[in-house]
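ugh finaly. both done.
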Amino acid sequence: MQTKRFTLLAGLIALAMHTGAGASPRSDSYYDYADVISAQQLYRTVRIDRPVRECWDEAVYMEDRRYNSHTPVILGGVVGGLLGHELGRKGSHGGLATAAGTVLGASIGRDARQRNRGGRYQTVERCETRHESHEEERADGYRVTYRYQGQEYVARTETDPGDRFRVRVAVSPAEK
């Protein structure tokens, strides 16, 4: 009994809302076909950007770093110091000549060590990525001109409608 009352009450409320004040005027619509006058394909320009990776082989000198002896530097400094001392004994600045000879000899020894250090060329792959872009025209629907009951209309569609175009016709009362 309780359920029947609730159902009846809900039905009455729904009927009142549908037919009551503030309801919109009745509108009817139906479908018909119009004749297509023209269908012009539309295009849009899109930019395509893609990364391009380029690689090449490059010869790189690789030093042999397994053994790094300081003997040439020390030996060069000793020989330079002795030579500077001998040259400085004949003059009045013996200590200065010895120091200069030591520094010069050590520098020559370092250079000799670098030259004789050894190494080899090794092929190494190098790569870089650059971006290429170009523009393309892409299909973007149709601009359709059609005639319905003697009037011409224009619409945009995703596909080519062919010779006939389905239209929805809506009829509603005019306001006074």
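ok and the 2nd:
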Amino acid sequence: MRVEPTPYKRVTGLGSAHHGVGHYIKQRVTAIAMLVLIPLFLFQFLASLTTGYDGVMAWLGSPFGLAVTFLNVSVMVVHMRLGFQTVIEDYIGGMARKIALLLNGFFALALWLIALYALIKISFGG
């Protein structure tokens, strides 16, 4: 059952944007994914750390190590962006909100691209 906003809320732009459920589900799915990926990453990474730098680089260069690390970074970046988005929407208003949300998206994308570049470079032995 969908409740329509009152005329005052419609004019002032107050009321539900009808995006809360999707945002909530995305945050929970990324949190559950991190519950699986972080221990898997740490277990594998710490096991490869015992063989030193060459062992870590060999593990990160392997398809499994690359996939686990890439998935871990990707899920963490999405979860971070969603969390910051919630904080920005709750505590910042007006034009500053729009700018902060835009910067949040660009920062998350930049962070993900930097991690992707580093992983590609490591996987090709560079």
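summary for the 2nd one i guess: The chain has a mean pLDDT of 89.
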